[in-house]
Amino acid sequence: MSETLLATSPAALIGLSPAAVKKLREILAAQENPEGFYLRLGVRGGGCSGFSYVLEFDRDVDPKYDRTFEIEGIPVVVDRKSLVFLAGITLDYTGDLHILGEGGFVFQNPNAARTCGCGTSFQA
């Protein structure tokens, strides 16, 4: 991984749209005990295009492998390997039922050479 990328603040590399921030705050507020929850963004091998996105809430953070930061008050964690693929990404949220069949979170990744029809996987 590039030393420049590691030195750059993850919050400068990953964006959350206003709609995503609003929905994430709603989800966190609905949790019985939201303290200590992080929004985990990541990438794993698989999916129909080679890589699939990870989007989940997680309390298990490993300082050796994970970078933590805040975007608009949302605590975010990204593992160091995924950060390379997610640099420049924006997470958006749409309630439009015509997008992705039911609406939901959408990854806007300028680094993706190709994405699948479902929007949950990509090729770097």
Structural description of this entry:
The chain is α+β, with helices and mostly antiparallel strands and 124 residues long. It has one domain (3-113): Sandwich (Hypothetical Protein Aq_1857, Chain: A), CATH 2.60.300.12. 23% of the residues lie in helices and 36% in strands. The protein has a six-stranded mixed sheet. A three-stranded mixed sheet has the order 1-6-7. A hairpin with a 5-residue loop joins strand 8 (114-115) and strand 9.
How many strand segments?
A: 9
Shape: globular
**Which structural class best describes the helix and strand composition?**
alpha+beta
Average pLDDT taken over every residue = 79
How many domains in all?
1
Provide the CATH architecture: Sandwich
Count every helix, treating DSSP H or I runs of 4 or more residues as helices. 4
CATH 4th-level superfamily = HesB-like domain
What is the share of helical residues? 10-25%
- Through-space gap between termini: 15 Å
**How are the strands of the biggest sheet laid out side by side?**
4-5-2-3-9-8
As residue ranges, the low-confidence spans are 1-7
CATH level 3 topology: Hypothetical Protein Aq_1857, Chain: A
Main sheet makeup: 6 strands, mixed
| CATH level 1 name | Mainly Beta
The percent range for strand residues is 35-45%
- State Rg: 14 Å
Nutshell version of this structure?
With 124 residues, the protein is an alpha+beta fold. It has 4 helices and 9 strands.
Question: Which structural traits does this protein have?
Answer:
six-stranded mixed sheet; Hypothetical Protein Aq_1857, Chain: A; 124 residues; three-stranded mixed sheet; 4 helices
